[in-house]
Design brief:
Distance between the termini: 65 Å
Largest sheet: none
Number of domains: 2
Number of helices: 16
Radius of gyration: 20 Å
Low-confidence stretches: 1-8
């Protein structure tokens, strides 16, 4: 294991190092689902304010990611998947990462409060704080339920986007929250199944490390079985149409098939496939929601 001095030895971090701190792949999903909440909400927000709201969501998520990397720099150095991150690789001093993360997190909440509304700002602050203090500091190193409970932070963007337009939280946005919340455990447990050695080496009590792969596969299947019916909530609540319903049925069927394969098969191939497809699954569902809503708005303006 590298010493703290080695972890912090750096002369001048590059722009790409600061970008890496933001966890851009995670941020892209956060931004996309936040934008979906904004588009699906009843009412309209000026395009410039809409862009600003999305930027606030993105930068707050990035700030939380940077703080997470600062706090987890010791275990990141032990894991093959994370050892090349800016801090454990020695390209950035920990205090610089912390200062950067805190600064953009606070700025995002302030801008959201002043330019959009206090409800969206409060939800943004809650999501940021939950990810940092509840998931990163409290849950991640203490319980195999870290992903289940901590997933609430990653499920917040649709609520924030919805509140940016309406100044409130609607049942529709709550169902979008629940969709992402139930998606998170099978998504990350699929990753954990083929990265279990990494987590074991770092002492992170992910479910495969604590309960074994067989139990993890069982839990993954259970959560997938619960997730697929929830994905039809937008149709039931009538803020999505037949195209979304078809997409939810097809994508949900494939996801269930993959979950059953993970449960039955040995080796990592099925888990890798489940992890990759789960990202596409959520992306497609939210993309269809956005396209349906924007098409509806376009036809309304033409009428």
């Amino acid at each position: 294991m590298r010493s703290e001095a080695q972890l912090g030895t750096v002369s001048s971090p590059s722009a790409s190092d600061y970008l890496a701190l933001l966890k851009p792949r995670v941020m892209s999903l956060v931004v996309f689902t936040g934008f979906a909440g904004l588009v699906l909400a009843p009412g309209e927000l000026h395009p410039l304010l809409a862009v600003l709201a999305v930027l606030c969501i993105a930068s707050a998520a990035g700030g939380a990611g940077a703080i997470n990397m600062w706090y987890d720099r010791d275990i990141d150095a032990l894991m093959e998947r994370t050892r090349n991150r800016p801090i454990p690789s020695g390209r950035m001093a920990p205090e610089k990462a912390l200062a950067f993360g805190v600064a953009i997190s606070i700025t995002s909440v302030i801008v959201m409060s002043v330019a959009i509304n206090w409800v969206a700002a409060a939800l943004l602050a809650f999501a940021n704080g939950f990810y940092v203090f509840v998931y990163t500091v409290w849950l991640k190193r203490r319980t195999p339920q870290n992903i289940v409970i901590g997933g609430a932070a990653g499920a917040m963007p649709p609520l924030i986007g919805w509140a940016a337009v309406t100044g409130a939280v609607g049942i529709e946005s709550i169902m979008l929250f629940l969709l992402i919340f139930m998606w998170t455990p099978p998504h990350f447990w699929a990753l954990a199944l083929y990265r279990s050695d990494d987590y074991a080496n770092a002492g992170v009590p992910m479910l495969p490390v604590v309960a074994g792969k067989a139990e993890t596969k069982r839990q993954l299947l259970i959560y997938t079985l619960l997730l697929v019916p929830i994905s039809f909530a937008p149709v039931v609540l009538e803020f999505a149409g037949a195209v979304y319903g078809l997409a939810a049925a097809v994508m949900g069927g494939i996801l269930l098939l993959l979950a059953f394969r993970v449960k039955q098969e040995q080796g990592d191939k099925a888990a890798r496939g489940m992890f990759s497809f789960s990202i596409l699954y959520l992306f497609v569902l939210f993309l269809v929601l956005i396209v349906e809503r924007m098409s509806e708005m376009a036809f309304a303006h033409l009428a």
